[in-house]
Amino acid sequence: MACTVAEPRTSLPQLRVLIAAPRGFCAGVDRAIQIVELALARFGAPVYVRHEIVHNRFVVDRLRGLGAIFVDELDEVPDDRPVVFSAHGVPKSVPAAAQSRGLSYVDATCPLVSKVHRQAERLIEEGRHILFIGHAGHPEVMGTFGQVPEGSITLVETLEDVQNLKLASEENLAFLTQTTLSVDDTVAIVEALKVRFPSIRAPRSEDICYATSNRQAAVKAIAGECDRMLVIGAPNSSNSLRLAEVAERLGVPSRLIERAADIDWAWLGSPAAVGITAGASAPEILVREVVDALSNRFEVTEEVADHSAERMIFKLPRELIPDQAA
């Protein structure tokens, strides 16, 4: 009787996967997504959303599947349907236009972005000119500029911008920052502003949000043990881009990917250790998807590298909470 001998299974290469913590959704993103979901529950579909509620295609597509319609401008919203403003904040002219049309609207602006808006208003009331550290064209920057009169705020993106500033007066200046910047870059720009304008007013507290700072610190904590870094996030997500930059500056080749299908396996090669993190708009399900994809090619050992616990929770708008809506 003939017998067959099973060939030994080829073992997969070993891979240590260091998962940064904290990572993924922050309190502001979680709140914004809940606002769209609650608006759909209260008003029914469709609910319109001006711009992406957060910068993540997976999140936007899921909400679209529930009945959300994403538009670029308010004039695309029918008179009889509610509209939600994105987490990045909007200029004052947007809710004013909604009110003039009698639209029902819910503002999902992150409370930490709203804090920057209020600071900008107070500084202008004090007669100060604001130097705003941020990235041109980002929705958060546009929203903040839209809180104050035109010409009362000047954008600063780089150290070179600080040196090239031409202001009508160098007195009564103040600075504010976008909430999703590189911590290290911003420190350098702030120091340059203070050198050039010694009397410039600083914010009472840090403008870069806790989630941005924590996620960058978590990447720094694991970078020294990683051969490659995968950052899960959208290409238009400022905080996600900054995470990849942080790792690169520490000498770790990094790639920003939206999900597992975007992994460049040739670039990844055969590393001993890979770091994984996710921007503040990326859901945990995409982290698991990437780990699963790695597990198909490697014998993966997972390690969660806790850096700093986050317990921040932001209140939801009263009008969307069922037991308070009345």
Q: Can you tag this structure with a few keywords?
A:
Cobalt-precorrin-4 Transmethylase, domain 1, 3 domains, five-stranded parallel beta sheet, four-stranded parallel beta sheet
Question: Would you give an account of this structure?
Answer:
The chain has helices spanning 27-43, 57-66, 93-101, 111-125, 139-145, 159-164, 183-196, 210-223, 238-249, 265-268, 284-295; strands at 14-21, 47-50, 68-71, 83-85, 105-107, 129-133, 153-156, 173-177, 228-232, 254-257, 273-278, 299-306. With 326 residues, the chain is of the alpha/beta class. It has three domains: 14-25 and 210-306, 3-Layer(aba) Sandwich (Cobalt-precorrin-4 Transmethylase, domain 1); 27-110, Rossmann fold (3-Layer(aba) Sandwich); 112-196, Cobalt-precorrin-4 Transmethylase, domain 1 (3-Layer(aba) Sandwich). The strands form three sheets. It has a five-stranded parallel beta sheet, sandwiched between helices. The chain has a four-stranded parallel beta sheet with strand order 3-2-4-5. Helix 8 (210-223) packs parallel to helix 9 (238-249).
Quick structural summary:
This protein has about 325 residues and is α/β, with parallel strands linked by helices. Helices cover about 35% and strands about 20% of the residues.
Topology:
Blueprint: E1 14-21, H1 27-43, E2 47-50, H2 57-66, E3 68-71, E4 83-85, H3 93-101, E5 105-107, H4 111-125, E6 129-133, H5 139-145, E7 153-156, H6 159-164, E8 173-177, H7 183-196, H8 210-223, E9 228-232, H9 238-249, E10 254-257, H10 265-268, E11 273-278, H11 284-295, E12 299-306
Parallel strand pairs: 1-11, 1-12, 2-3, 2-4, 4-5, 6-7, 6-8, 9-10, 9-11
Helix pairs in contact: 8-9
